[in-house]
Inverse folding.
């Protein structure tokens, strides 16, 4: 992964491949952001004018490269747009800084070293720049650049362009404990987000329940997280009918993975539950052509939970965090669950399966019940659960449902704080009747309209009495199919990891909403 350092060097004297400065959109043209003073001085105070001549405006996402002035050791200056000039000169929005740093880092892929002279006058600003630069530097190249045996022996295969190798954060205070802690936190957090992205992007022939469980086990050993893996025999013995029902059509058997991070001084316990469908064909209710190609991403919720638990352990947070990864591959075969079948869930409740492509709620139902048995202070599940949520909120915003309004509000505030777009959604009681079944206790489908809310109501049935619970439907932002933007790459994004980690931090500080 890209290296990150805090430097006392000035922008003018730093030897690097490029210097990154921020430019805001002013009424009369581009306005240089704090951090760019030394670079502007090398341009005789005319850097803003030069950028304007080149067509720069300072709009968010805009990027302009220009040769460096003679007074700079770096050969290239990269000016990145921050959006409108804030009311206060030093009050740049943290998310604007993240996105700008990410945009610059992506543009500098293939470079060895870049100095980021973006606003870093506060610990929060420095952390945002660090996060954005590291997230933007991400590239998934595991399946590219291998030896081509058909190529001539003397042919040069350059392989895929590698991400920016080193980010040097300028303008911070390397000897200040708060700055150092913020940078170390950013590094740990982004390393785990990028691990989640790697898992999401890994082809399903290589990532299936057993191999995902192996990754979790290895990470647990490395970071002091206890890992328990329930295989098919253990799931049968335990009566996990939801997970087994979804996974029974595949040659790759299902798993339920428990990750447990504990702190000796913790006073609260959080449980995170992740949907981990490593490939979703829809089962017997087969998805139509054009809807299968990205279904390796249907384990994004489990990847987020995994990353959040490991991050909590790496940060040593004073809170107990347990992660539950409900892993299965949803495939059609002679052994697959059929529409009309009835499954007995781990809770004892029976479910009539009307559509085998509504499988995520089945594996989550079992995991939610199992998590509830340990009586945590709160449960949050994360899932790429419904296309209905994408229709409601688009591709960049996840929905939040909960059995407690105050807890839902708290999760929403946390998500907005860390830069993850989200929106609180209701759980209308009248939609529950649509899941009544003449055969079982409940059906896995209800009314088509409000389908994302129906799914949330289904999950609510499996949460233990008196436990605060929230459901994050990340179907939109979990996997980005368009061109990269800001710090968001094409493919897996690691959506919800930052929200879960900040929730754990707040809980550790005694502020569980």
């Amino acid at each position: 992964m890209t290296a990150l350092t805090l430097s006392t060097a000035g922008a003018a004297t730093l030897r690097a491949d490029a210097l990154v400065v921020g430019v805001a959109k002013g009424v009369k043209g581009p306005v240089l952001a704090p951090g760019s003073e030394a670079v502007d001085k090398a341009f005789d105070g005319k850097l803003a004018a030069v950028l304007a001549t080149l067509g720069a405006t300072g709009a968010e996402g805009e990027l302009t490269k220009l040769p460096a002035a003679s007074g700079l050791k770096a050969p290239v200056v990269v000016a990145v747009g921050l959006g409108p000039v804030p009311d206060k000169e030093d009050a740049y929005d943290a998310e604007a800084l993240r996105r700008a740093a990410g945009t610059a880092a992506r543009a500098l892929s293939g470079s060895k070293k870049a100095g980021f002279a973006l606003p870093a006058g506060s610990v929060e600003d420095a952390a945002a720049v660090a996060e954005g630069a590291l997230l933007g530097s991400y590239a998934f190249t595991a399946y590219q650049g291998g030896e081509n045996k058909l190529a001539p022996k003397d042919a040069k295969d350059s392989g895929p362009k590698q991400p920016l190798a080193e980010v040097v954060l300028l303008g911070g205070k390397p000897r200040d404990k708060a700055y150092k802690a913020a940078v170390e936190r950013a590094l740990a957090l982004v390393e785990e987000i990028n691990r989640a992205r790697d898992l999401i992007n890994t082809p399903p022939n290589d990532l299936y329940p057993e191999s995902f469980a192996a990754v979790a086990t290895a990470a647990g050993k490395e970071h002091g997280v206890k890992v328990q893996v329930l295989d098919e025999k253990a799931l049968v013995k335990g009566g996990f009918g939801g997970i087994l029902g979804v996974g029974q059509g595949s040659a790759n058997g299902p798993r339920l993975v428990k990750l447990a991070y504990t702190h000796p001084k913790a006073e609260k316990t959080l449980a995170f539950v992740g949907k981990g469908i490593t490939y979703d064909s829809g089962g017997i209710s087969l998805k139509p052509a054009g809807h299968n190609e990205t279904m390796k991403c249907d384990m994004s919720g489990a990847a987020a939970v995994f990353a959040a638990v490991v991050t909590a352990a790496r940060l040593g947070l004073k809170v107990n965090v347990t992660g539950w990864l409900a892993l299965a591959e949803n495939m059609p075969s002679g052994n697959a669950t059929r529409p009309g079948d009835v499954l007995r869930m781990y809770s004892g409740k029976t479910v009539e399966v009307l559509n085998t492509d509504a499988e995520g709620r089945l594996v989550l139902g079992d995991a939610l019940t199992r998590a509830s048995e340990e009586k945590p202070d709160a449960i949050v599940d994360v899932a790429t659960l419904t296309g209905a949520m994408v229709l409601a909120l688009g591709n960049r915003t996840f929905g939040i449902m909960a059995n407690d309004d105050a807890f839902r509000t708290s999760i929403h505030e946390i998500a907005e704080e860390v830069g993850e777009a989200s929106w609180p959604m209701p759980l209308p009681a009248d939609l529950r009747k649509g899941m009544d079944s003449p055969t079982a206790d409940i059906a896995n489908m209800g009314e088509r309209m409000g389908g994302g809310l129906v799914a949330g109501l289904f999950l609510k049935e499996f949460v233990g009495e008196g436990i605060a619970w929230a459901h994050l439907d990340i179907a939109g932002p979990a996997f980005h199919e368009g061109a990269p933007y800001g710090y968001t790459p094409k493919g897996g994004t690691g959506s919800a990891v930052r929200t879960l980690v900040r929730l754990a931090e707040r809980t550790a500080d005694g502020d569980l909403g």
Summary: The first helix runs from residue 37 to 42. The radius of gyration is 24 Å. The mean pLDDT is 96.
